[in-house]
Automatic annotation (TrEMBL):
<feature type="domain" description="N-acetyltransferase">
    <location>
        <begin position="1"/>
        <end position="152"/>
    </location>
</feature>
<dbReference type="InterPro" id="IPR016181">
    <property type="entry name" value="Acyl_CoA_acyltransferase"/>
</dbReference>
<dbReference type="Pfam" id="PF13527">
    <property type="entry name" value="Acetyltransf_9"/>
</dbReference>
<dbReference type="InterPro" id="IPR000182">
    <property type="entry name" value="GNAT_dom"/>
</dbReference>
<dbReference type="GO" id="GO:0016747">
    <property type="term" value="F:acyltransferase activity, transferring groups other than amino-acyl groups"/>
</dbReference>
<protein>
    <submittedName>
        <fullName>N-acetyltransferase</fullName>
    </submittedName>
</protein>
<keyword id="KW-0808">Transferase</keyword>
Amino acid sequence: MIIRTETIDDYKQVYQLNYLAFGNRDDEAQLVEKIRHTDGFIPELSIVAEQENQILGHILLSKASVVDGDKECEVIVLAPIAVHPDDQKRGIGGKLIQEGVKRCKAAGYPLILLIGHPTYYPKYGFKPARSYGLNLQQFEVPDNVFMVKEVIEGSLGTIKGELKYPAVFF
Ligand SMILES: CC(C)(COP(=O)(O)OP(=O)(O)OC[C@H]1O[C@@H](n2cnc3c(N)ncnc32)[C@H](O)[C@@H]1OP(=O)(O)O)[C@@H](O)C(=O)NCCC(=O)NCCS
């Protein structure tokens, strides 16, 4: 299996993968398509896991901002991540997250934020974001599902304010 940047030729399989992984609904598959057409899309942060020409997993990390008064900081949001139902619990999701974190670090993004399963993401270093002065008003979610991972040392607890997802997420 290889982990690599998504290409245009993968789009169809990535759509189908998200559709299947999210229980035969296409909200997330469509979200991926919409994000690709926005300024927040970073091609190198749309990453796939491929084996024998089959896409088994996909992760999309894209731009968002943390706003505090007139200060605004560019950060990354993780959404969505999907692993084919037949291939879950083999570590593919973890490999995609680790590669995504590595690439965010290389590109200089300080934090990755997400809304997600509270028992899954902590395996990869995500922590409840509100404990670090980050807040979220666009979605009403419990504290333990709004999470952050520090990518650049020293940024957690330093970058504070409200996470603003781009309009494409609504
Ligand atoms: C969530 C998802 C991406 C994880 O990918 P994966 O390749 O199965 O995960 P990994 O193999 O890297 O990690 C497996 C571990 O995570 C746990 N895990 C997997 N899905 C989980 C979930 N939804 N909630 C909590 N834990 C989960 C497994 O039990 C396993 O734990 P263990 O290592 O203690 O045995 C995958 O299950 C998936 O596509 N789910 C459907 C879509 C989805 O919910 N996406 C995330 C939205 S927040």
